[in-house]
Amino acid sequence: MQDAVVIKCGGSTMDQLPDAFFQAIAELQQAGRQIVIVHGGGPAINGMLEKLSITPAFVDGLRVTCEETLQVVEMVLCGQINKRLVRRLTQAGARAWGVSGIDGAMLTAERTAKPLGQVGEVKGVDTSIPTAILQRGYVPVIAPLAVSADGAETYNVNADVAAGAIAAALAAERLVMVTDVPGILRPGQDGTKTLVAQTDAEEIGQMIADGVITGGMIPKVQAALDALSQGVPRVVICRGTAEELRSVCAGQSAGTVIQAGVPKGA
């Protein structure tokens, strides 16, 4: 879908997204843009785990998900965050339809090799459901849960990873990762940080090795590189302001742009 834009909304940004963000999506939809939203919900999940006296655990920015945690993840993502986003989009004038990767086995996965419990690595994306939703004039709002190929297991999938896989399967022209920072930030000798406006796989690998990219930003850039390797032309990591969304959809730069083969110094 050459005019499709997949937008990943990070859980840390969920309560910070202004009405203008949703209004911009409504405007883009009304202008004929095919918009798909994939969302996280980390802080809300942590809040519910705390209420239930379950201690969250992470490895390399990925949530360790035992069976008890998985129940909380599914409840929060599908029952709370997903419907909140649909409601805000509807209030802004967009038409939105909330689903999860479990519905229709949209996302199939296998347990990740890392010791993370019920965390899945995406192995397949059935695009028929998001495509049907788009064709009916709605914005698909997708919670990042998946099932095993036989449907017997449910997996928590990192939202960045899910968004990258969905963008690649839809042959989207853009993947936009909305987060709580302006993009990839490089620390300077004076303690200040500067935005990396444009980068590529080689430089990202070096920034991870140097400790410039750490924690939750690691799965973001890895998902970005996976999407690029599967044909998505450009990935943008940004705050996702209304102005940035319009700029990205117009082919202009915003935040950190990641694409293949960026010459050094570009």
From TrEMBL:
Enumerate the Gene3D superfamilies for this protein: Acetylglutamate kinase-like
One GO CC term of this entry? cytoplasm
Q: What is its main location?
A: cytoplasm
The top EC class is: transferase
Catalysed transformations (reactions):
N-acetyl-L-glutamate + ATP = N-acetyl-L-glutamyl 5-phosphate + ADP
Pathway in which the depicted protein is active: Amino-acid biosynthesis; L-arginine biosynthesis; N(2)-acetyl-L-ornithine from L-glutamate: step 2/4
| Binding locations of substrate | G41, G42, R63, N156
What superkingdom does the record give?
A: Bacteria
Q: What is the annotated localization of this protein?
A: Cytoplasm
Which InterPro entries does this UniProt record tie to the protein?
A: AceGlu_kinase-like_sf (IPR036393), AcgluKinase_fam (IPR004662), ArgB (IPR037528), Asp/Glu/Uridylate_kinase (IPR001048), Glu/AcGlu_kinase (IPR001057)
Per the UniProt entry, the Enzyme Commission number(s) are 2.7.2.8
Task: Note one Pfam family from the annotation.
Answer: AA_kinase
Function, as annotated, reads: Catalyzes the ATP-dependent phosphorylation of N-acetyl-L-glutamate.
The entry's protein name is Acetylglutamate kinase
Please tell me the species this chain comes from: Brevibacillus aydinogluensis
User: Which gene is annotated as encoding this protein in its UniProt record?
Assistant: argB
